[in-house]
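chain and backbone:
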Amino acid sequence: MFRKILFSAVSIVAMAMGAVQAQDLKEFRVGILGGENEADRLRNYQCFADHIKEVLGVEKVSLFPAADYDGVIQGLLGGTLDFAELGASAYAKVYLENKDAVQPILTTIQTDGSTGYRAVMVARADSGIKTLADMKGKKLGFADPDSTSGYLIPVTSLPKDIGMDVKSYFASTGFGGGHEQLVLEVLKGTFDAGTTWASGVGDFKDGYSSGNLRKMVDKGVLKMDDLVELWQSPLIPNGPLVVRTSIDADTKQKITDFLTKLPQTDPACFSAVQGGDYKGYSPVTPEFYQPIIDARKAKIGS
């Protein structure tokens, strides 16, 4: 009985100390997924950093644009990052390694009200490749091994459309080093086609309403006339905005409230951070990503 009381007392003290440490947060560390060049990512997130510094009353907000998805994933698992927006597969990887490392709080809402997006396969418009059937025996590029739309969903969904596994259908596959770089490699001819992400809402000629293609168009590094779409995936759950689980509840609520209001309080910042047109944010829980977690566990194993 004494041991049980002592254990409970120690647990309460430890929890109290953890809460104090979280409330004394002096630096807020934000991970930014790879996918476009570092300068663009830092510029797009600067308004977020300025706002969240004031909202949380911290001395410093540090932005960490990782070279690839795994850089942010490891930062969250290791506790060296406090916040990030992840793709569904990247979140699944974190969850499968340590389900208590981060807490998903919000996800984006598309302009049509949906909370999902698409993987799209694109090829050069002048390549002579017009359909998925034309890609048999050709080179296919993926964005990143931890990308949902750039890898996980294509390798699990394409076999239903091509009638065999990906390795048997295509001559070879490889990775482009992020979504933007993947599309640039397709344009250069490194791959005959590649998979990236888009809202699937709106017109292909505009790069859709949001996603990697739209961001590239808006930056002036892509003309949609240079691409043709070969394939589009089923709807994929939009990725979550996550916070380190050990941060105290009050701080998490401040972050959630700030982000929920951001589309109204600073629409330009909201658009810069998200890279396109969205309606806003919606609350989300781990259960929303269970299909992606299951798919990753089955196909990749981590």
